[in-house]
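Below is one protein, fold included:
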Amino acid sequence: MNAWLSPRSVPPHAVLDCCCGAGGAARGYVDAGLDVWGVDSNPRLERDYLASGATRFICADILDVLADRQFVRQFDLIHTSFPCQHYSQMSRCRPGLAGTYPDLITPGRPLLEAAGRPFVIENVGAARPWLRDPVVLCMWMFGYRAYRHRLFETGGGFELTPPLPPDGMIPLNRE
């Protein structure tokens, strides 16, 4: 039996939440009625992650999990929030700092493409050079007061269209 599987198989309408952290993305998927399984290399996140309503937490290296095609093909969507430190402005302002953090987009994308499942790669604005045709979303687009941008690359047959900005505002995807 596959190393990532439980005695039961993955249910329909399931999302694999990669580099899941404490469950921010999971909460939205759970609220949408999806079954969510998270993967993170930090075992201390399990309790908080499962409090998001997610079904399962797997403590493992995300590249190992994504390389397991039999496992990832059971999911209807793969959401990845690869750590942003390598791409962030904070790392760019200090020589050598970015190199101390892993670039997981570059090795992760081919694994996502090989899975043959719809996927999303989410990251910070400074990750734009590593992402293909990302869509910019901001929390204010969804009624929140926070001004927090995220870039979303989609693949595997999944396409994302950004919501229209409020009247008088310039769309964020234009350079």
